[in-house]
Amino acid sequence: xxxxxxxxxxxxxxxxxxxxxxxxxxxxxxxxxxxxxxxxxxxxxxxxxxxxxxxxxxxxxxxxxxxxxxxxxxxxxxxxxxxxxxxxxxxxxxxxxxxxxxxxxxxxxxxxxxxxxxxxxxxxxxxxxxxxxxxxxxxxxxxxxxxxxxxxxxxxxxxxxxxxxxxxxxxxxxxxxxxxxxxxxxxxxxxxxxxxxxxxxxxxxxxxxxxxxxxxxxxxxxxxxxxxxxxxxxxxxxxxxxxxxxxxxxxxxxxxxxxxxxxxxxxxxxxxxxxxxxxxxxxxxxxxxxxxxxxxxxxxxxxxxxxxxxxxxxxxxxxxxxxxxxxxxxxxxxxxxxxxxxxxxxxxxxxxxxxxxxxxxxxxxxxxxxxxxxxxxxxxxxxxxxxxxxxxxxxxxxxxxxxxxxxxxxxxxxxxxxxxxxxxxxxxxxxxxxxxxxxxxxxxxxxxxxxxxxxxxxxxxxxxxxxxxxxxxxxxx
Length: 477
Description:
single chain, alpha+beta, 9-stranded mixed beta sheet, 14 helices
């Protein structure tokens, strides 16, 4: 007697052989290609349904001592004493469904509409025992898959728009130093005597334009720092105002003119902001075309904006004039003796290690007048040491360190103090010398001009008069 069909179980099918024994063919996890059962021989069991005759339940699902039931190709056949309800109670709903699908595959019968499974959500994977498994690998329903694709496209488009808007804002709107500068910012500095804290919210509240301004050159100079290799470059950077054309003309006729002197190549450069007076701006443009020694930015000239001139100049030197060995920086009402200046740099040991000038030690903070500073911006009574802005010298190494510090500090509203904080952050030592006469001279004598690096607060007429006397070889020394 042979059976044409097999009874499905959780792992395979049971067959009745002609000799009356039952055989088990394994399926599921050990199936071969295309879902076919593994051809390896299946174990045989006696017809009684108990292994070893000890009354243990057989593989068909009958209880001990009770006749078994099995499946045929035509449907379920029930044997007496083995009710199908008991066999069904041993399986869960999910196991029954798996058995029916397995039977259809093995018998080669046409598959009917499969039982619906819970459709997993995109991105979660299928579930076994309530736990998420691997990725879906395309198991999302077409509608959900389409929704996933559209969601991804929408997210990518939104990201691109945000990046474009961010770039556009950087081009049109001045950005804060914290946004465009180094990721490291300095919150406090000490000079050994005082600790200086930076309340950035106070800086932004009192002087937002100083923090938000983005340096924009309107008139760049014409190759001031370019030239053949030779003596080291000494740049004469002179702070001026668009309305001061006559002063600049006087300085160009005297000490602020290109020259080679004392082993250095001297080049003047006038640093300007902007103004609402178009006539002055037109004169500045003419000067630039004629002399090529104007560097102008688009911020409006004001007392507090002198700090912007300091910061933007450091940025310009870093980007366009790193070949300058030294920079002398001063005002346009200053007399400079170029011979004494170059002699000072030659005879000073390790001159490139310092900032040179008239160093003010822990000056008192003013709370009223032109130089007033709010308490919440700067609560101390003393400033750090600084080189007076009337005239001082910086080296190439110092300029690079000062520029890096300018990326990490807020802009203080007084340019001398702003430079003091930059110097402290850059860890550059300062060297005081009395030859920097930033407070003028007690007695206006030619000998003082002959011995000084610079003298501040001199009229244009006196500058031209002194220069002629110093240039005249007949003038007694």
